[in-house]
Amino acid sequence: MKKEHLIFGIYPVLEALKSETELDKVYVVKGNSNPKIEEIIEKISNSQTTINYVPVEKLDKLTRSNHQGIVAFSSPILFHELEDLVESSLEKNKVPLFIVLDQISDVRNFGAIIRTAECTQVDGIIIQKKGGAPVSGDTIKTSAGAIFNIPICKVDHIKDAIYYLQGSGIKVIAATEKTQDSIYDLDLKTPIAFIMGSEGKGVSKSVINLCDEKAALPMLGEINSLNVSVACGAFLYETIRQRSS
Q1: Which residue, 95, 113, 127, 202, shows the most beta carbons closer than 10 Å to its own?
Q2: Does the model's pTM come out above 0.85?
């Protein structure tokens, strides 16, 4: 994340919260006992901010100045609440299309997915608070600025997001090579959320088990998997093709 997004020290972080600055994540020194830091943690506990407890050496590397046991990163974007986004998408009298990212860690893949999602008018991208690629300067650059034009939601757990989507009448489809079902054989004209998995492991088994359907792309070469951002683009444009016909 770029330096201009870094805020360190107890009172600077408190002032950022008072000014309603959106914080992406906060690093707190392990074993903290400072009541002011506890006050900060309480203020952000119900927000979409990720709190990480780290060794003091981690904070020392982030800033050479006195961090007082806390370092925060302000977010370059405003995150949306999942419930509000789903509700507003359904109210628009259109067929919603969402992407759920299951632990994608490469910011370049993240940015490329955002860019394609914006080009295909995806209603929103859902990410987990912990474990995935950050919304950073590199993400913004790779997305060619598209990140400012598409809603992004942070959730505590992907599974809870899936339950909510399904409860809202949205079919959840896992993109995985571990199926014989082709994306080209599925009906994509209904409300849909695609689950795209991490670069190394794909969609996790526990998440796949919750999905309504699984879908794969035909692989004709020796390599049996595609880059996740390329696969996501293929899924999205097949959806556009079906909905346009």
Answers
A1: 113
A2: no
